[in-house]
Specification:
The chain is an alpha/beta fold. The chain has a domain at 421-516 and 538-762: TIM Barrel, CATH 3.20.20. It is built from 27 helices and 23 strands. It has an eight-stranded parallel β-sheet with strand order 1-14-13-12-11-10-8-2. The chain has a five-stranded parallel β-sheet with strand order 19-20-21-22-23. The chain has a two-stranded antiparallel ribbon with strand order 3-4. α17 runs antiparallel to α18 (465-486) and α22 (581-602) runs parallel beside α23 (625-640). The chain is globular, with a radius of gyration of 27 Å. The structure holds glutamine and zinc ion. Zinc ion binds next to loops.
Length: 763
């Protein structure tokens, strides 16, 4: 890796394989169908292919240790010996069995330890990737249990490929970890952790690694002075006997952490120029510091404007010297699919607008070439990019005048219900005549093997449309009959026809495209194919009305219309980069609003608009919250406010932590909100009481994340806790979330107990 000319760098490549090889290898191993050797073989094969691809594409700086069998945060925890008790680890190397027990729970050693729970999982910054949360105790000690970064570095070296190993930095690692046993700040363990990192870095240096990439994305968060000081301390310790350090910040701008970042004794600094800007970087950075400019979007799938990027970066290269600049993606390419070329069914024009991981490597190489040898040297790449960008900008598939005109005409009145809640709810009570503590569920019923099999057969053409519809009608009718039989008050149709709560709507809206192979890791072996929103969003025709009508025709009790909200659809998709997110969100809101209107017209008295992903869209920095919550709440209100006072709007949010956003939740003005509260023993309700939340609430009393069937007493106890915090007349009784991941044998008794618990309260 010589540095005499400007280099294209990769910060990390997707691990999953273009054909999802890792998923299949993992699942076969977990099912006992193949052994560890086969799994490790697949893993090695994927690493080799990734290195070779990056090399062939002209990437000068290729990462190693970006590969993980499950999760890179888990790898780090395991490597430093941060393994809680109960996973069969007694020191030394960590077995695959213990590793997967940490990741997934389950049996360790087949016997004595019994069922072990998995580590908690949470979102990696504001991505849709989930990492396993390391658990640390106050008396935690650390030890190097393995040298995966070194092993992978050497593995690449043996193939003749010099790599830059990637490790997760100690400060971000501790910041992501969770205190267990007592209340302390994991960052206080830094001095115990640093020797382990120092040992690893020294070994990498001895093995010949010239550079190492240390990821510290925590540098883009709001940090306290102590946290900033921890960075200064950590890198003062680590810089001593280590390869040259490329310290990578990403997912935003360092902002007020920039001065700290630039004061660290490292050889290079990576900044995200897609979500952040240069700010004062060029003025403040010491002249010998290598700058890695993250200019290719690692979080989205649009083809880059090579010419514009070269124009933007050329003065920087001239100012600092090509040897001191690297061109990189904004972050690891983990968050984008691998190869657009596999998409043989995408519309050809659309396909040219896209860039997945492989294409981004080509873009990086072209940019490095153009910046070191002039635009003429990469004229072909530039003109292909220009043509694609021009075609996208002019496409009639992207711009829909009807949508823009409608959006421009939206007024505050469109976002407001006709009357205040107090008046509406009285009318709704008169219309619905529900008992006290009304019971309902969140929408989906078990997506059984039979349901998935029928869907797969239909998609393959093995089952015709009529037969498939007939099958779904039977499932729906059975679900309705079951709900009536056990005495639920407000019914749902069960969502059997839906593959996914976002995809189902995206497939029926214009402006959305779907890939065949565009998988992105969500966690472990779970991958998702996010929809691509490429154009103005509109709803050509009703999407859910026929299913609602069918379900309602089977019962006298109210069946809820069931929709996914605009913020959730937005947050779980790849979104346009040519208009603001807020604008796309408002377009989706108008489309779903039409569906709300059609459901109401068809007779639905209750319509639920799920916003499962509203909270996770919060910007990483608190300074961005107000703006986001402003337009997100506006979008929800625009979706929900076209109905008459007598129509009851529900929303559902399956998460905790409402304290800091409760005012925004209240501003959504849904008549009823259902939330997840059972695991926290109703503690989460405190947000709703401290603030005096005005509308009705269904705090979940049945933890649907577990196969365990709660008994009636347990739910009664939760309801008693809820009644201490909320007036009886506000209270609904429901599970935490949809039941699609559960089996009927769990759902049936659990819901029977739930209805009994509610009835007992009424009595
Ligand atoms: N209505 C959806 C369901 O029940 C809601 C899912 C969710 O909030 N994640 O499946
Ligand atoms: Zn939910």
């Amino acid at each position: 890796m010589s540095n005499d000319k400007l280099a294209a760098a990769s910060l990390g490549f997707p691990r999953i394989g273009a054909r999802r090889e890792l998923k299949f290898a993992l699942e076969s191993f977990w099912a006992g169908k193949s052994g560890a050797a086969a799994l490790l073989d697949t893993a090695e094969h994927l690493r080799r292919r990734n290195w070779l691809t990056q090399q062939e594409k002209g990437i000068a700086i290729i990462p190693s240790n970006d590969f993980s069998l499950y999760d890179h945060v888990l790898d780090t925890a395991v490597m430093v010996g941060a393994i809680p008790e109960g996973y069969g680890w007694t020191g030394g190397a960590v077995s695959l069995e213990s590793y997967f027990a940490l990741a997934r729970g389950g049996e360790v050693c087949g016997h004595s330890h019994g069922e072990t729970r998995a580590l908690e999982m949470t979102k990696w910054f504001d991505t849709n990737y989930h990492y396993l949360v390391p658990e640390l105790t106050e008396d935690q000690t650390f030890a190097l249990t393995g040298t995966k970064p070194l092993d992978h570095y050497l593995e690449a070296k043996a193939l003749g490929i010099e790599t830059r190993p990637v490790i997760l930095g100690p400060v971000t690692f501790l910041k992501l970890a969770k205190a267990r046993g007592s209340d302390f700040t994991p960052l206080s363990l830094l001095d115990r952790l640093l020797p382990v990192y120092a040992d690893l870095l020294s070994r990498l240096k001895q093995a010949g690694a010239e550079w190492v990439q240390i990821d510290e994305p925590a540098l883009v968060l709001d940090l306290t002075d102590e946290e900033r000081a921890a960075f200064v301390h950590a890198y003062a310790v680590l810089a001593g006997d280590a390869p040259k350090i490329m310290l990578a910040s990403y997912f935003g701008a360092p902002g007020d952490n920039l001065t700290t970042l630039l004061s660290l004794p490292v050889a290079g600094v990576h900044v995200d120029l897609v979500r952040g800007t240069l700010d004062s970087l060029l003025d403040e950075a010491p002249s010998g510091l290598v700058l890695s400019l993250g200019i290719i979007d690692g979080r989205n799938i649009w083809r880059a404007d090579l010419s514009a990027i070269i124009d933007r970066l050329a003065p920087i290269v001239a100012r600092r010297g090509a040897a001191n600049i690297q061109i990189a993606p904004s972050c690891s390419l983990l968050h984008v699919p691998i190869d657009v070329e596999l998409e043989t069914e995408l519309e050809p024009a659309l396909k040219t607008w896209l860039s997945f991981a492989n294409q981004k490597l080509d873009e990086l190489a072209a940019l490095a070439g153009g910046l070191s040898r002039g635009k003429a040297a990469v004229a072909e790449a530039i003109s292909a990019a220009d043509a694609a960008i021009a075609s996208r900008a002019a496409s009639a598939r992207v711009h829909n005048d009807v949508v823009s005109a409608r959006l421009a005409a939206v007024t505050e009145a469109d976002r407001s219900r006709k009357s205040p809640f107090a008046e509406r709810i009285a009318l709704q009570h008169d219309r619905l005549k529900l008992p006290a503590f009304p019971t309902t569920t969140i929408g989906s019923f078990p997506q059984t093997a039979a349901v998935r099999k029928a869907r797969a057969a239909f998609n393959k053409g093995a089952l015709d449309a009529d037969a498939y519809r007939g099958f779904l009608e039977d499932e729906t009718a059975t679900a309705i009959a079951f709900q009536e039989e056990i005495g639920l008050d407000v019914l749902v149709h069960g969502e059997f026809e839906r593959n996914d709560m976002v995809q189902y709507f995206g497939e029926q809206l214009s402006g959305f495209a779907f890939t065949k192979h565009g998988w992105v890791q969500s966690y472990g072996s779970r991958y998702v194919r996010p929809p691509i929103i490429f154009g103005d969003v509109a709803r050509p025709q009703p999407m859910t009305v026929a299913w609602w009508q069918f379900a309602q025709s089977k019962t006298e009790r109210p069946v809820k219309g069931m929709l996914t909200g605009p913020v959730t659809i937005l947050n779980w998709s790849f979104v346009r980069d040519d208009i603001p997110r807020s604008e796309t969100c408002a377009q989706i809101a108008l489309a779903i609003r039409d569906e709300v209107a059609d459901l109401e017209k068809a007779g639905a008295a209750i319509i639920q608009i799920d916003e499962a992903a509203l909270r996770e869209g919060l910007p990483l920095r608190k300074s961005g919250w107000k703006d986001y919550l402003g337009w997100a709440v506006d979008a929800f209100r625009l979706t929900a406010s076209g109905v008459s006072d007598e129509t009851q709007i529900h929303t559902h949010m399956c998460y905790s932590e409402f304290n800091d956003i409760i005012e925004a939740i209240a501003a959504m003005d849904a008549d009823v909100i259902s939330i997840e509260t059972s695991r926290s023993k109703m503690e989460l309700l405190d947000a709703f009481t401290g603030f005096d939340y005005p509308n009705e609430i269904g705090p979940g009393v049945y933890d649907i994340h577990s196969p365990r069937v709660p008994d009636r007493a347990e739910m009664t106890e939760l309801l008693t806790l809820a009644r201490k915090r909320l007036a009886d007349r506000k209270l609904w009784v429901n599970p935490d979330c949809g039941l699609k991941t559960r089996g009927w044998d769990e759902v049936k008794p659990a819901l029977v107990h739930m209805v009994e618990a509610a009835k007992a309260l009424r009595g």
